[in-house]
Amino acid sequence: METIETPAPEARTNRRGRRSRQEILDAAARVMSVRGYAGTSMSALAKETGLPKSAFYHHFESKAGLLSAVMEQGAHAFFAAMREAHRNPPADGTPRERLRWYLRRTGDVMENGEEFLRLLLVLVMSREAAEAPEALQTVIAVRDEGRAYMAHMIRSSFQDAGEETADRIAEALAPFGMAGYDGAFVALQSDGGGAVSAWMDQLADALAALGEGIAAAG
Fold first, then answer.
1. Predicted TM-score (pTM) of this structure
2. Which residues contact 120 (CB under 8 A, 6 or more apart)?
């Protein structure tokens, strides 16, 4: 008869520890995205998870440390989803068609990553992350990576114009593309907002028209 081995007590403890840490991160992401960092107390998180406050301080040195971990986890998941969504981009088509392909999928990632993006924008607008330097660095890094990713989408869409021209267009329009993406997310959070796919198509059309103008100007 086959013997079923029982996990050692320390293995069970480690699994429980990882589970409780993940529960805390998930709860903190939900609560902070609604209340903000300053408005989220350890008492509220303890109530949300059913875990004692001691569990929070076992895994995280401080509330600032918890915010840093939440932002790091959210950023990793968001950009992993973005890379997956943009696998196998079209090799043919006009810049407008390529941009629509990229941005529609970027809109899908937006809708699936609402909690993270909401918290990110709250931190950007409120400056609350200044109390948590590690989290502030993550916010800055995410915004930088977002701009770089927008530039990549624009550059790839204008690749037929030549490398130098595509780079010039991407550098000029990436900040505008980010502003449009941010605005679409804010509209998504508003009552009566339209379909994200429609906003992404409009943003793609605007970027394509501006990029064509830059290319024509030489």
1. 0.81
2. 71, 74, 139, 142
